[in-house]
């Protein structure tokens, strides 16, 4: 009886944590566009101290007239922001954006995922500017991005959800603004918009991944437990699905 109550309590905690992280994460994401949908105005925002003055700044990706643009607004001590003059060109439809120090120089960088599957890296120069460093990877599409140190080497890694391929791809950071791997985790609900978050869901001190399937009103989700080496195993006891026969592949 006690064990059953404990399991129920743990499941509820995981459920609340997964939904909250996936739907209210400070990391930016937006709903992907299907190929037959028109361009929409997308707003993605991340926060970091891009000019190292101790005040939070903003980086924002928007879409206007069919083109994505990345802008940086520097925070002021009075709580206002000053937008920099340079607008950085992005892809047609930016869908997710995260910030971390990907090249380990002590300055925040920005990674933007586009609907076309490209992952574009922009390196911070410490003066409030973001410099394009090219595509670090290309997938079928990008829905959301999670950042964590999956292999515990002190360097930020990323996981990227891809609705076209119905996978989550895991990339390990090299510390030089590049990534290795791209190992796919197959997802069980093709055609949905999987949003992901990284957190330690089983309390072992290692980042895990949660995948929330965006087309399910009951917040169906899967949890993949990390092994500390960059690999993941699905944890059915921490996952939840209302109807296991729903969204089966044709």
From TrEMBL:
Signal peptide range in chain numbering: 1-30
Domain of life of the organism encoding this protein: Bacteria
InterPro entries listed in its UniProt record: FG-GAP, Integrin_alpha_N
Keywords in alphabetical order: Signal
UniProt cross-references to Pfam families, sorted A to Z: FG-GAP_3
Keyword Signal: yes
Stored Gene3D superfamilies: Integrin alpha, N-terminal
The protein's name: VCBS repeat-containing protein
Organism for this UniProt entry: Alloacidobacterium dinghuense
Species classification: Bacteria, Pseudomonadati, Acidobacteriota, Terriglobia, Terriglobales
């Amino acid at each position: 009886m006690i064990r059953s109550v404990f399991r129920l309590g743990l499941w509820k905690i995981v459920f609340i944590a997964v939904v909250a992280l996936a739907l209210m994460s400070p990391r930016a994401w937006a709903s992907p566009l299907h190929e037959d949908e028109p361009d929409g105005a997308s707003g993605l925002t991340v926060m970091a101290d891009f000019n190292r003055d101790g005040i939070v700044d903003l980086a924002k990706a928007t879409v206007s007239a069919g083109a994505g643009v990345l802008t940086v607004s520097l925070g002021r001590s009075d709580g206002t922001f000053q937008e920099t003059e340079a607008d950085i060109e992005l892809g047609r439809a930016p869908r997710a954006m995260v910030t971390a120090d990907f090249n380990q120089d002590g300055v925040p960088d920005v990674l933007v995922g586009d609907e076309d599957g490209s992952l574009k890296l922009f390196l911070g120069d410490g003066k409030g500017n973001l410099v394009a460093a090219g595509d670090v990877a290309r997938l079928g599409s990008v829905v959301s991005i999670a950042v964590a140190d999956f292999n515990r080497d002190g360097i930020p890694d990323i996981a990227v959800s891809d609705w076209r391929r119905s996978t989550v791809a895991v990339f390990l950071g090299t510390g030089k603004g590049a990534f290795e791997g791209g190992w796919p985790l197959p997802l069980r609900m093709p055609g949905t918009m999987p949003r992901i978050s990284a957190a330690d869901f089983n309390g072992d001190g290692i980042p895990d991944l949660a995948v929330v399937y965006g087309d399910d009103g009951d917040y169906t989700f899967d949890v993949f437990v990390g092994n500390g080496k960059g690999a993941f195993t699905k944890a059915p006891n921490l996952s939840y699905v209302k109807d296991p026969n729903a969204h089966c592949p044709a």
